[in-house]
Amino acid sequence: MLDLYPSRVKENPSITKRKDPVIHNSTSQDGPLNKNDLDFYEENGYLLFPNLFSSEEVEVLQNELKRNMDENKASNEPHIVREAKSDQVRSVFDVHNNDEFFNRLSSHERIVNIAQQLLGSQVYINQSRINLKPGFKGNGFYWHSDFETWHMEDGMPNMRAVSCSIILTDNYHYNGPLLLIPGSHHYYVQCIGETPENHFEQSLKMQNIGVPDNDSINWLLEKGGRIDSATGPAGSVLFFESNTMHGSNSNISPLPRSNAFFVFNSIENKLVEPFANIAPRPEFLANRTNIKPIEPKSFDLTKKAFALS
Amino acid sequence: MLDLYPSRVKENPSITKRKDPVIHNSTSQDGPLNKNDLDFYEENGYLLFPNLFSSEEVEVLQNELKRNMDENKASNEPHIVREAKSDQVRSVFDVHNNDEFFNRLSSHERIVNIAQQLLGSQVYINQSRINLKPGFKGNGFYWHSDFETWHMEDGMPNMRAVSCSIILTDNYHYNGPLLLIPGSHHYYVQCIGETPENHFEQSLKMQNIGVPDNDSINWLLEKGGRIDSATGPAGSVLFFESNTMHGSNSNISPLPRSNAFFVFNSIENKLVEPFANIAPRPEFLANRTNIKPIEPKSFDLTKKAFALS
Questions:
Q1: Chain A residues 153-182 with a CB less than 8 Å from chain B
Q2: In this predicted structure, what is the pLDDT of residue A309?
Q3: Strand locations in A114-236 (E)
């Protein structure tokens, strides 16, 4: 397959134009998003919906997150990621496959319908996780485009995926919210360095390959004109395009941050062999088997699963 | 001398009430600050004046900062502090003593009159520095009360000092601005741990003694109700009380931060022997010789010094 977005091959970084549409064959007739929403996403590469989930729903989601993390407390399976300096569980991956509640959540029409509209097709989950980031000593995460990694290490052919972060704690400016460079999704930053095998074992904690250079970040910021922060109350939901440059600062505040995170990929954009010429990353980071389009479901999150018809 | 604020002696941290007034014998008749300003400072422990210096003055200040840092590029004197991972100068201390321009700046009536009013007496400079904090990889600095260190390691007897930070680059929420816990200056957090000799050599980079515990920070935040960020355009000036709990997150944005920093101490609060039973820190961190009250001066920063009468 033709590599539309080569990276990690040249000695010097470079910036090329995006080759895929941002919104794929959709109009405001095709889903819940209106023209303003679509225009904002096209221009800025993200959409933030304050209070898309109610406080009652947030309470359920927070409890389920804690329940899942408690269940995994003693596990040493690779999809459970812990804090470097303590034993605390920081992320549980693949929750749409290994947890009944989060499997249901991943099909909730309130988020799936938006993903379908943005990607102009049926969708499936390429990666999911729940995150609990501690206060006081919360580490930041440097600027990166998810797509660069998904393309090079997972074999995602096109920019036709969207990340959905359901924010489960209030996000303030000072507790390490996600920062985004508006408009950065229109450009592809070709990074330097060769990808080592099993790079993911290191890169989940701190990325050093697939990291954009300073000049490219400066250039994107000059184009975009500003840095936006995904702040908002618990229950807000952030959708951001696969190639939007994002990162976060550290968090010395006592206020921890938690979220549920789903990457929706177009059913027409299934993974092929990684473009970095390495073995594919594990299934919990990039689903490639048993791919089926999600059937969006309407249900009340605050009711037990057995109450469903 | 009686130690009003013991710290680093007990096995467990504790919080006591402040024993000094916040505003010392002053009213709105005594200086440039009005009643609202004084009330805000009394309640919150800081005051931020947007654009106290004009953009023309900021340009002069920025150039003088660069000039001074360039002059000190090759120096290996201890008052020049460099980045851990590069050779770049990060801070130059004692600029009110070793640099003609910053000596003049430290006597500018626009800042000295405010310090005098807050401290209710004549003032002198206890510590000064200019800072250039890089973008992309700027480190944060954990919560601390300056007074705790000044008391224990420098022998400052009372809470009767104020820090003045002249902000020389635009401070945004996302480039690591100073964070403050409003009202925290009313309480003294007694820290644990014993102070090693020459602790300052380490603590200028990362503090590990005199660091407040998590429970105390939580308690202060609950009392204060919020965290405030010192954001604002270049030329803004932040005054914050010696005991106000403050810190900063990291800065992944490309935008560096620079400032000129003066600690004004009351002439009635001169340093004695350190309360931690260690040798006093060097003069460049804590002035104790040739202390004379500052005579506030009115002059035009954008005019050369020789234009003064």
A1: 172-174, 176, 179
A2: 42
A3: 123-133, 141-144, 161-167, 179-180, 187-190, 228-229
